[in-house]
Amino acid sequence: MRCHYCDHEAAFEAEQAGVVVGLCTDHFRERVEELAEDDGLEALRDRIDVESTE
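^ that's the sequence the OP posted. Answer follows.
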């Protein structure tokens, strides 16, 4: 699978409602940074029940 934003090989895949989107490492990081800036990362953590290792 290719990245949704460029032609690199996807390192990550996300699926919602049967639609699968691939992201390369660089674009995955960019999206996570965007989520962190608008409090979306906290909502994502709650949604997927991420546990901290700290």
